[in-house]
UniProtKB/TrEMBL annotation:
Protein name: Tautomerase cis-CaaD-like domain-containing protein
Positions of transmembrane segments: none
InterPro entries: Cis-CaaD-like, Tautomerase/MIF_sf
Domain Tautomerase cis-CaaD-like positions: 1-133
């Protein structure tokens, strides 16, 4: 349901992308009630992009999180998200490692997802994930039973986390 765009000026290896994507998914799913199947992470190499800060061209590493805003998500939750994303980045790219020159310059949390559809399901409003899961659980289980591996994992996760059940 959210879309995280990791813009990077410096090379990121496939294993680093895997680690970042898995951890971003876990962070978002833990802070909010979003099932992990619906956390999207995209990586963009911006080493040749035209990016400006303060009116001057620059190259940056940034995480832009497009999320669903709502009254059940206070500013403090988004501040915690920023803190955890920075800690994650610094665990993958330690700032005191002189061989690494990959600082995270910017984190923006954008409350820009008003509506959408994933896997054939309309997205719920922020904070209504559990009710949404409850409404669609039978369809998730049906698709899982028909061999849809993503839905099988989703059903296991929502039951393990007690979402909508």
């Amino acid at each position: 349901m959210p879309l995280y765009i990791v813009s990077h000026k410096d090379p990121i290896s496939p294993s680093q992308r895997d680690e970042l994507a898995a951890a971003i998914t876990k962070i978002h799913s833990t802070l909010f009630t979003t099932p992990s199947l619906f956390v999207n992470v995209k990586f963009e190499d911006v080493s040749a992009a035209s990016y400006y800060v303060g009116g001057k061209p620059t190259l940056i590493n940034a995480i832009h999180a497009h999320v669903r805003p709502g009254p059940t998500r206070p500013r403090s939750a988004y501040d915690a998200l920023c803190t955890q994303l920075r800690a994650l980045w610094e665990s993958v790219f330690p700032p005191n490692d002189t061989a690494i020159t990959t600082p995270l310059d910017t984190i923006f949390i954008l409350g820009s997802i008003i509506a959408g559809e994933e896997k054939g399901f309309m997205l719920p409003e922020a904070g209504k994930d559990s009710e949404w899961v409850k409404v669609h659980l039978a369809e998730f289980e049906k698709r899982a039973g028909e061999g849809d591996e993503e839905m099988r994992v989703l059903v296991e996760e929502v039951k393990a986390r007690g979402l909508g059940v």
